[in-house]
Every structure is written in structure tokens, then in C-alpha cells.
UniProtKB/TrEMBL annotation:
Transmembrane stretches, start-end: none
Keyword Oxidoreductase among record annotations: yes
Keyword terms of this UniProt record: NADP, Oxidoreductase, Tricarboxylic acid cycle
PANTHER family: SUCCINATE SEMIALDEHYDE DEHYDROGENASE [NAD(P)+] SAD
Entry keyword annotation includes Kinase: no
Protein name in the entry: Succinate-semialdehyde dehydrogenase [NADP(+)] 1
Protein encoded by which gene: gabD1
GO molecular function, one term: succinate-semialdehyde dehydrogenase (NAD+) activity
Species of origin: Mycobacterium heckeshornense
Length: 471
């Protein structure tokens, strides 16, 4: 795939970029490694000042940055601007909270025979970030902000179709005051990831992307014994029970399915509806999905823009067409629009069987699969009948049902009577084939830290501890 800006609304190639050479890659890694030796000793106050300045620049430049993101991957201008402002919030959150989140944690010194004992969190070094195109700024920032505030330095290998956004992030971080080499963008193909990760100067990696990409990075990192965080997508359930506020559930379901033109790992994709409210839900849901306006993502009245890539649309079409051929029913949408660009309409499908690929594969576009459940047990069984486990949504007023969903849904996140959203204040990540590790909140900033145990004996007695045998 060429490294290029290609407008998804027209298919026009706007600008192409030359990949970095092996020599340029080596220089960048060397610069990052050298910078870390100094940067790790900067204070939280210094890092916070640079992070807040970066946030201010993001806010000041939100309109032009949003336009660039819309041009590169097709999200609506409204969504793109909101993403830029969310990135500013992310930098501010870690500027305000990093020192507390990474503060020394005291231990029970007496229990371990010490005069003093505690845990200290220290940065690891150069971290490679392999990021996707669907939230091209936020998904990189939710790594960059905590990593930089922890004292790490970063190298970004972004998706090949969002090179301008990738370069902008490194530039705005530099203009915010972070020292040269703290965060660098490398425009390189996927084939360059393995040699970068194997470089002994690179300490760890984080990847958000496809399952095959995650498996590849995890294999290399495992061979090199380097820590990784992986977020590999999801097929999130959206369960509606009879006690739910049906109108609120329907309107939220529409937003949850078509956010970011349907291209979100945490978008609700499988709608599991209790039989008592199934018909009413489907009628309202189809009506609202069909009423969405598909069009130019720069038009403020547009609800759904194009898919980001031509291949992405082809993948969505294949899953839908296979399902229909096998007996599934299209309730709205289901056919590409006859216009330039990579548009696909909001689509609702029912009568899906378990032997259809659409049942188990993630549909990365505005396509909703709807299932009927006889009771809460069947709803949970359908929800868990996937290899993914990222987010989940459940709608019910019954507290006992809420607790069942919290306890029994296999996912990294459960949102009750709401839509899954990533917040700087909450840990983000999944289980099963959705990956491992966490981003955001305290869990995220500690992922790329050395959790160092400190044990200090009494200098007067030369105490060596409890006398237990060493492991």
C-alpha cells in the first residue's frame, strides 16, 4: 500500500510520500534512544507544561486539523473536530494526573522485614507505536500522552493512508515544547515494523489494528522478550431487554453503529434484542438507520461519510452479499451507492445464522446485524459467541440483569444503558482476540513502566529480611 493521502469521498490521490530509508530509520531510533537518557530525568512539572502547551495548540488548530483528517480518511468534519478536542483533553488529563498515578506506592515494610518498602514506576525507554487510520489522531495520542508523561519516548509508525495526520502529531508535540527526539513519526511500510521492533534500542511496542497485525507484532516482541499492548478490534454486542427505555436504546444504537462511518473497534455491531421488544426495536431502528444522510463528509448535514479505503468497502460488501446469498434479510441499505468515492449506506440485516461469516467476523462499516434472544441467558450466550471481547452495551432497568451482564459478558468493557466510549479517566482494552493490556487511566500509563520493588533494610542492624529462602 503506498504512503499517500487518497480522498475517500472521490478516490483522488492528493499527495504521495517517500518512505524513510533504512539509514533514516536508524538515525531516528538513535535520536530517540539518546534523548531518553536525558528525558527520563525531566520532572513531571516540566512534562506537564509541554503537554498543556500541546493541548492548547491542538485546540487552536482544531478546524484545520479536522479538515486534514476528513480529507485523509473520510470521517465527518463534526466528528474530526471532536476527535482533535478529545486529544487535547487527553494531554491535559495526563498533565494533571501523571505524577499522582505514578507516585511511589508504600508497602507493609514490617511484613517483609524492612525499614522501608515501596513500589516505584519508572519509564522503559523507546516505545514503538503502530497505529490505525480510523481515529488517526486520538488512537496515537492515547499512547503518546501517557507515554511522554511517564518519561518514555515514542516512535510512531502510522497507517499508510494518514501520513499528514501522522506528521502533524509529531510536529504539534515538538511545538508544544517536548525536546527533540521525544516523539517522532516514521513514514514506513508495514515491512519495516519487525526490524524496528528487533532493534535493541527499542524497549516495547503498542499496536492498535487487525488481528493478523497484532499476531505478527506479538510474535516478534515475544521472540525479543519485549512488552506489548495490543488492541485488535471487536464485534461488540448491544443487548436490549424488555425493561429498557426503548426510544433511548434505539437512538443510541444508531449512533453506536454508525459512529466514525461505522469504522470503530468499539462500535456496536451485533444487536441482540429480547423477543418481547424485538419487533418494536427493529421497526424503529430500521426507520432511523434508513433516514441517515450519506454524503460529503465536509457537509455539516452529513451523518455518514465514505469508508476510508476501497478495500474496506469491498470487505463490507463481501460479508453482506454472502449473508444475503445464504438467506439473511436486508431491512435497509445493503448496496453501494452509485457515486464516486467509497460510500456504503447504513444497513440492517436480520435472519443471520451462525454458519454465516458475518456472524463471527467484524464488519468494519455501517452494517448492523440484529439477533432475537428468548431470555437473558440466550442474550449473554449470543454476546459471548465471538472470538472478540473488547466492549459491550446492555440496556435494562433491572438491577439483577445489570449485574448478570457485568459479571457474565466476556469483554474488557461493559456499559449499561449507554454507549461504549473511550475516556482518559477509564482503562481501555479487551480480552480474547481483541488483545491484551490496557490504554488510558492509571493502567495505561503504567503499561510501559518498570514496576520496581524497593526494599530498604535498617542500616543499624544490617537486617536481611525475614530469613526466608530466596526464590
Amino acid at each position: 500500500m503506498p504512503i499517500a493521502t487518497i480522498n475517500p469521498a472521490t478516490g483522488e490521490t492528493v499527495r504521495t510520500f517517500t518512505p524513510a530509508t533504512p539509514e533514516e530509520i536508524d538515525t531516528a531510533i538513535g535520536r530517540a534512544h539518546a534523548r531518553f537518557a536525558e528525558y527520563r530525568r525531566t520532572t513531571f512539572a516540566e512534562r506537564a507544561k509541554w503537554a498543556r502547551a500541546t493541548a492548547e495548540l491542538l485546540e487552536a488548530e482544531a478546524d484545520q486539523t479536522a479538515a486534514m483528517m476528513t480529507l485523509e480518511m473520510g470521517k465527518t468534519l463534526v466528528a474530526a473536530r471532536a476527535e482533535v478536542l478529545k486529544c487535547a483533553k487527553g494531554f491535559r488529563y495526563y498533565a494533571d494526573n501523571a505524577e499522582q498515578l505514578l507516585a511511589d506506592e508504600p508497602a507493609d515494610a514490617a511484613a517483609v522485614g524492612a525499614a522501608k518498602a515501596y513500589t516505584r514506576y519508572q519509564p522503559l525507554g523507546v516505545v514503538l507505536a503502530v497505529m490505525p487510520w480510523n481515529f488517526p489522531l486520538w488512537q496515537a495520542v492515547r499512547f503518546a500522552a501517557p507515554a511522554l508523561m511517564a518519561g518514555n519516548v515514542g516512535i510512531l509508525k502510522h497507517a499508510s493512508n494518514v501520513p499528514q495526520t501522522a506528521l502533524y502529531l509529531a510536529d504539534v508535540i515538538a511545538r508544544g515544547g517536548f525536546p527533540d527526539g521525544c516523539f517522532q513519526t516514521l513514514l514506513v511500510p508495514s515491512s519495516a515494523v519487525e526490524p524496528i521492533l528487533r532493534d535493541p534500542r527499542v524497549a516495547a511496542a503498542t499496536l492498535t489494528g487487525s488481528e493478523p497485525a497484532g499476531r505478527s507484532v506479538a510474535a516478534v516482541a515475544g521472540d525479543e522478550i519485549k512488552p506489548t499492548v495490543l488492541e485488535l478490534g471487536g464485534s461488540d454486542p448491544f443487548i436490549v431487554m424488555p425493561s429498557a427505555d426503548l426510544d433511548a436504546a434505539v437512538s443510541t444504537a444508531v449512533t453506536a453503529r454508525v459512529q466514525n462511518n461505522g469504522q470503530s473497534c468499539i462500535a456496536a455491531k451485533r444487536f441482540i434484542i429480547h423477543t418481547d421488544v424485538y419487533d418494536a426495536f427493529v421497526e424503529k431502528f430500521v426507520e432511523q438507520m434508513a433516514a441517515l444522510r450519506v454524503g460529503d463528509p465536509t457537509d455539516p448535514d452529513t451523518d455518514v461519510g465514505p469508508l476510508a479505503t476501497e478495500q474496506g468497502r469491498a470487505d463490507v460488501e463481501k460479508l453482506v452479499d454472502e449473508a444475503v446469498a445464504a438467506g439473511a434479510v436486508i431491512r435497509c441499505g445493503g448496496k453501494r451507492l452509485d457515486r464516486p468515492g467509497w460510500f456504503y449506506p447504513p444497513t440492517v440485516i436480520t435472519n443471520i445464522r451462525r454458519d454465516m461469516p458475518i456472524f463471527c467476523e467484524e464488519v468494519f462499516g455501517p452494517v448492523a446485524s440484529v439477533y432475537r434472544a428468548a431470555d437473558i441467558d440466550e442474550a449473554i450466550e449470543i454476546a459471548n459467541s465471538t472470538t472478540f471481547g473488547l466492549g459491550s452495551n446492555a440496556w435494562t432497568r433491572e438491577e439483577s440483569e445489570q449485574q448478570r451482564f457485568i459479571d457474565d459478558i466476556e469483554a474488557g468493557q461493559v456499559f449499561i444503558n449507554g454507549m461504549v466510549v473511550s475516556y482518559p479517566e477509564l482503562p481501555f482494552g479487551g480480552i480474547k482476540r481483541s488483545g491484551y493490556g490496557r490504554e488510558l487511566a492509571g493502567h495505561g500509563i503504567r503499561e510501559f513502566c518498570n514496576t520496581k520493588t524497593v526494599w530498604i533494610g535498617s542500616p543499624e542492624t544490617g537486617d536481611c529480611g525475614s530469613g526466608e529462602k530466596a526464590e
